[in-house]
Amino acid sequence: VFLNNCDNLKDWLNPSEGYYKSLTIDTKEKTQGTGSVRAQVDMNKETGFMMIYSTKPTVDIGDNTHLEFDLYLPTPNLFKDAQDCAIEISSANTWDKQEAEWGAKYIKEKMTFKQGWNHVRLALDEANYSKRLGKVDFKKDAVNFFRVYAIGLSKGYNGGELVAYLDNVRFTKGNGEVPDDGSTPTVKPTDKPTQKPTDKPTQKPTD
């Protein structure tokens, strides 16, 4: 079940300033469909990147057990170098409410990345869920929000520019099956990305 195919910017937050500045659709770097969401950040002015999708139509996860997506990173250490980072979904059109989150501790201790395209597969039963009156308030049948971010990076990080791409955000049973709307990847993730990696991150990973 697709949450978003990243082929257009409808419902992606794209203000004139801030971490999620200058979101565009890139038709060359992609793993399915006609494009991916591209975030380009001037790291001499900002301290990280953030991609936010918030929509009124909701998605019913059904019996799916995993959140999966493809994420292109300019350096494998980006999340480790960040002071804060997270991957979140919600049924409240915002963060910190009706939320399932894989936070900084989870990402830094349990996930590994490479420079270039990474296929991310997250088990829903490993997420940290928000609660209201002591009960989980996340609504599995009404997901309408997604956020991924890494912030608190050093000034000038990655040579002063950070470019990341996101594609193919969906819910699955964790076995990599094709989404039930019939969409199939048109381009396989490349092992040789077009952007050169940085040899020496400017900030040491946090312990």
Give the key terms.
207 residues, mainly beta, 5-stranded antiparallel beta sheet, 2 helices
Query: Count of DSSP E strands?
Result: 13
User: Spans of 5+ residues with little confidence (pLDDT < 50)?
Assistant: 178-207
Portion in helices: under 10%
Mean pLDDT: 84
Order of helices and strands: EEEEEHEEHEEEEEE
The gross shape turns out to be: globular
- Main sheet summary: 6 strands, antiparallel
How much strand content do the residues show?
35-45%
Concise structural overview:
With 207 residues, this protein is mostly beta strands.
Write the layout of secondary structure elements.
Elements: E1 2-4, E2 23-26, E3 36-42, E4 49-59, E5 66-73, H1 78-81, E6 84-90, E7 99-102, H2 104-110, E8 116-123, E9 128-129, E10 131-132, E11 135-136, E12 143-151, E13 161-172
Antiparallel strand pairs: 1-13, 2-3, 3-13, 4-12, 5-8, 5-13, 6-7, 6-12, 7-9, 10-11
Walkthrough of the structure:
With 207 residues, this protein is mainly β. Helix content is 5%, strand content 38%. It contains 2 helices and 13 strands, in the order E-E-E-E-E-H-E-E-H-E-E-E-E-E-E. Strands 1, 2, 3, 5, 8 and 13 form a 6-stranded antiparallel sheet that branches. It has a 5-stranded antiparallel sheet with strand order 4-12-6-7-9. A two-stranded antiparallel sheet has the order 10-11. The relative contact order is 0.29. The model is unreliable at 178-207 (pLDDT under 50).
